[in-house]
Amino acid sequence: MPAEAALDVLLQEATRRRLAKFDELRGKVTQTGEFWDVVVITAADKKQELAYQQQLSEKLKRKELPLGVHYHVFVDPPGPKIGNGGSTLHVLQCLEEMYGDKWTSLTIILIHSGGYSQRLPNASALGKIFTALPFGDPIYQMLELKLAMYIDFPTHMNPGILITCADDIELYSIGATEVIKFDKPGFTALAHPSDLTIGTTHGVFVLDSSALSEKELEYKSCHHFLHKPNIEKMHQSGAVCIRRNCSQPNSSGEHSDLKMDYEYVYTDSLFYIDHNIAKQLLTFFKQLDTLCCEIDAYGDFLQALGPGATHDYTKITDNVTKEGSQLAEIRQKLFSLLKGTSLNVIVLNNSRFYHIGTTQEYLFHFTSDSKLKLELGLLSTAFSIFPDKAENSDISACIIQSILDSRCVIAPASVIEYSRLGPEVSVGTNSIISGCCISANADVPPNSFVSSLSIRVNGKVMYVSMVLGVEDNLKKNVKLLSDVHSLQFFGFSLLQCLDLWDLRVSDQLFSGDKTSLGLWTARIFPVCSTLSDSVRVSLKMLKAVQNKSAFKLNGWKLLSIEEMLFYKDVEDMLKFRQQIYEEITLQRHKEI
């Protein structure tokens, strides 16, 4: 494998070529075999499905995507969560219903985007797959990036389905004459060299015993697949590879003369199934009465594959988010169905895998990560108006499709997207501002998360802004009202905050399931008649907590984040983004 600096350049060149190739196809009708026949995005519920369809429709109208392709949003069936594995099975059924026998002759990409993005809530309303990236004109979102990065796949793929997630990026470089082929029966997965710590949060391949040559591209067989293993397990299973006499980076990041052995594993990202496997999985799904538990497309499909697979994992629930009573039984049936199926691995030695699914990852990759910035060509100001930026704000801040007054101040390591900020606004370090209009004097403290949503209540458009700490845990919940004190808002006990806001702890304080009480379901965000008022009032809430001063909320109509998503008005949010887009475009034409 090349040294880090050389790899940076290889990835930059390969990525630029793919982006240019995708740009050529945007707004044009594609030829057969040139692009995917079908692009599928999954949604968690009807509201999300509608939001995705509206955004897809807008993109196609603006010619931001290749044309002549079938784009579909398939919503999970109502009822209990079924995970991305259950969602995959459901999509197979939808495809068969829509295309009949023809579906087995298509090349299909399936992008899982059905979560509520609780760890990156600026993507909660409009979806992780529509997360904006700081480059492109018009701005690229994750959907375009994923389609661009996989632009070479359909041409060298047998009919089948490529399965990927909405919040990761795979960048890779292969030789000029090499191509990645998805032409073997069974499952085929991409593998990326990663350090052992990364392996503990991913899938890890135990490859067959023949030596790896460390060429840019290798086709291997997988003996068995480990799902989020600990480091001891990686060693015991023979998953750990060793690169001998590697030069190690010194404290400034440059490579020194010090030579050491370097341990690494091959971790997963996307995978492909041929239509024979797809049909088997569909038959399996049809035989189930109903699916009432979460299946993981990675953990529950891939662990059954390869000659070394055992059924031990079917009983282990350490890495399961919510264990359903049906889960062990489903896993055992899937194991019986898939046992003996080959797992082909495409080893990409010159590759990097990035995950952008949490506020911390989002902030790091968009503001501080020099590698991704170089490889993808990320900008500190992307399709925005921010005059004299260098004088007022740190270059490591990131501005995406926003209009900022020249006198506002943005501190380092913060991201502003789809927003309009006036002259008396300052944003503290390590903050995220999304979809906001802040016209009046405002001081956003460091480590703040501020995201505004349009909602429609009784036929009227209103606005509500969620204000949180970037490290607040929206997934944490308690079962009893007496345990609410253990919940945190901006580093303070929620109980303490409620007291300052003159709100009482009661069942009425929380929406939805009354045995799942957390920041996600707490009715603490005020509804306002204008977008700028909603930010102003929510920031007052936060200021009250920081200054330990009272700010009464008991006279306001209050919503939880869960309810904000239920009442969201996608059309109005997209209209606000479009107004910003048109104003920036107009300003640019004036400057030409």
From TrEMBL:
<dbReference type="Pfam" id="PF07959">
    <property type="entry name" value="Fucose_pyrophosphorylase"/>
</dbReference>
<keyword id="KW-0547">Nucleotide-binding</keyword>
<protein>
    <recommendedName>
        <fullName>GDP-fucose pyrophosphorylase domain-containing protein</fullName>
    </recommendedName>
</protein>
<dbReference type="GO" id="GO:0042350">
    <property type="term" value="P:GDP-L-fucose biosynthetic process"/>
</dbReference>
<dbReference type="InterPro" id="IPR011004">
    <property type="entry name" value="Trimer_LpxA-like_sf"/>
</dbReference>
<dbReference type="GO" id="GO:0016772">
    <property type="term" value="F:transferase activity, transferring phosphorus-containing groups"/>
</dbReference>
<dbReference type="InterPro" id="IPR012120">
    <property type="entry name" value="Fucose-1-phosphate_GuaTrfase"/>
</dbReference>
<dbReference type="InterPro" id="IPR012887">
    <property type="entry name" value="GDP_fucose_pyrophosphorylase"/>
</dbReference>
<dbReference type="GO" id="GO:0000166">
    <property type="term" value="F:nucleotide binding"/>
</dbReference>
<feature type="domain" description="GDP-fucose pyrophosphorylase">
    <location>
        <begin position="100"/>
        <end position="530"/>
    </location>
</feature>
<keyword id="KW-0808">Transferase</keyword>
